[in-house]
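Session log. Operator J.P. requested a structure for one protein chain; no other inputs attached. Running the standard single-chain path with token output.
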Amino acid sequence: MKKTQMEIKKGAIVIYKTSKNEVELRVRFEGESVWLNQNEMARLYGKERSVITRHINNIFKDAEVDKKSNVQKLHITNSDKPILIYSIDVILAVGYRVNSARAIHFRRWATKLLKQHLIKGYTVNEKRLLEAREKFQELREVISFLKEKSGHELLAGQEREILSLLENYSKTLTLLGQYDQEKLTLIKKTKGKFILEYSGLRKVINEVKSELIAKKETSDLFGQENGDKFRAVLDNIYQTFNGKELYSSLEEKAAHFLYFTIKDHPFVDGNKRIGAFLFIYFLDRNNCLYHKSGEKKINDNALTALALLVAASDPKEKEKLVKIITNLLK
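Structure written below.
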């Protein structure tokens, strides 16, 4: 759309009334200006249209107001002929020339409206800027964290997978595009229907164990429990406070389940493998394992790196890891 043309948009009309209800106008409010056509200005100031036309011509002739930036063409629905509309600068300049009480009232109203708009606009932009800074800071922290952990002995040879994790994580932010297009939105959290239950998970672990033993890839210690630690992990996932679940979303439950299964060592052997497998199992049963494109949200290599990151992490870094995992699942 050319700069010299505008379409009437929903929400771009505000009502102006004089104090004694002598006149009521539907005033266009676009960008940071108020716009009226000549007929509307004639009604506003109680003058003939010819008088308004003469004043406008003289205003432009005297270069009191720049014509190019203060006149636009308004296309009306079902009409081939556009009408000219004039900005607040032209409207006020005409008002000064007619020197009426209505002009004074309108100037006060328009000034108040524009002031409110500017204050609100500043507040909205300030909020968006703050959100952008927070997202950038979050990304910087994740980069620093992954860079630090990539040197850990457990993660030797996992550099490419860690890079893949970072790439996928940064994609979830899609920050620059959203910020430029004013589309920063809060991503809704998923509610999972499938519930993790001890007896069902034990069957899954035993099946995995049988397959691994048959391939001679593990020993009989795989999946043996350390006391009641595994039950405690499940209790943690579904714990409540004041009647509300502490981890309310599927993403939070999955992330904490992976973290606790690896870090709390609920099994004598196989904590990382069991944690990773049950993490995928939980997501799959909740139809949350794949993107709409059919691609896995976290591929096998990235999951291996993620499990090793959890294992190599300091307990103080738990929230950071959980945040990384939940963002990868969005």
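Operator note: Residues 1-11, 121-125, 172-188 have pLDDT under 50 and may be disordered.
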